[in-house]
Amino acid sequence: MTPTRATASAPVPAISRTLDPAALPDHLDRLYRAAWAMCGSHEDAEDLVQDTYTRVLAKPRVLRREDDLAYLLRALRNMHVSRRRAAARRPLSAAELHDDDALDASSSLRPELAVETREVFAAIAALPDAQRDVLVAVDVAGLSYGEAGRALRVKEATVTTRLHRARRAVSAQMEQPA
Question: How many CA atoms lie within 13 A of 17 on its CB side?
């Protein structure tokens, strides 16, 4: 008699745990970089991360088979989409002023790097949503292709394709003369 094997179709039990609020500051830098790439400006990125943390901390969050960063990136993306939808419904009154010329301490040492970084993040922010989300998850936040796929709820092959197209579009944008 041969031993029976577990079938591949057997459901895998979901591992649930509560998001630890004390661990959230560990992800702040990566989320800020991701938000900056999504929004294209420092100020909007700071507001987006703050709004995301406010919403996430408003009530206990239960995570199922995913890490904190993947969950937080999805929450950040969802908050960004919600804010864009709300802004689209509001009538435009006056042109918003963005102080893109203000330099922080790190950019004052190498202003050409600060300008180039702003241009790259502006090019990322101009990408279609699907491409931007994958590029932010992999290249800005540092997720693996598999982690990005789980965070964005797409297949790993889709991540690969979108990432290639996004990188090519950003590269083409950066090669255009100003």
Answer: 9
Distance CA 161, CA 158 (A): 5
CA distance linking residue 147 with residue 55, whole number of Å = 22
Dist. CA 49–CA 31, nearest whole Å: 7
DSSP of 45-59, one letter per residue? HHHHHHHHHHHHHTS
Q: Which residue type sits at 156? A: E
Instruction: Decide: pTM greater than 0.85.
Output: no
Non-local (6+) Cβ contacts of 48 within 8 A are: 35, 38, 39, 76, 79, 80, 83
Alpha-carbon torsion, ordered 103, 30, 172, 114, to 10 deg: 10
In the chain the first and final C-alpha atoms are separated, in Å, by 74
pLDDT digits (tens, 9 = 90+) for 26-56: 999 999 999 999 888 889 999 999 999 999 9
